[in-house]
Write a structure and sequence with these properties.
Layout (H helix, E strand, L loop, with lengths): L4 E6 L10 E7 L2 E7 L6 E3 L2 H15 L5
Parallel strand pairs: 1-2
Antiparallel strand pairs: 2-3, 3-4
């Protein structure tokens, strides 16, 4: 199993990323999450839009609204 690393909030992804690392990238007043692959060659963003859509649908179902 690969080691897990997390980097503090940064202004942008670094040119050279560490493998298997979570990067917190400052955006506005919040941050975006990225995870680098096993080689550090690519960073994959969090699928936040999909997760928020699932949460909204679940809340609608709880409230008895059409989904």
């Amino acid at each position: 199993m690969a080691a897990f690393r997390a980097e503090k909030v940064v202004a942008s992804l670094p040119d050279v990323m560490a493998p298997d690392t979570v990067y917190y990238v400052r955006t506005g007043t919040g941050f975006d999450l990225y995870v680098s692959d096993a080689t550090g060659a690519a960073a994959h963003p969090l699928n936040a839009d999909a997760a928020l859509g699932d949460i909204a649908a679940a809340l609608d179902a709880i409230n008895g609204e059409e989904v």
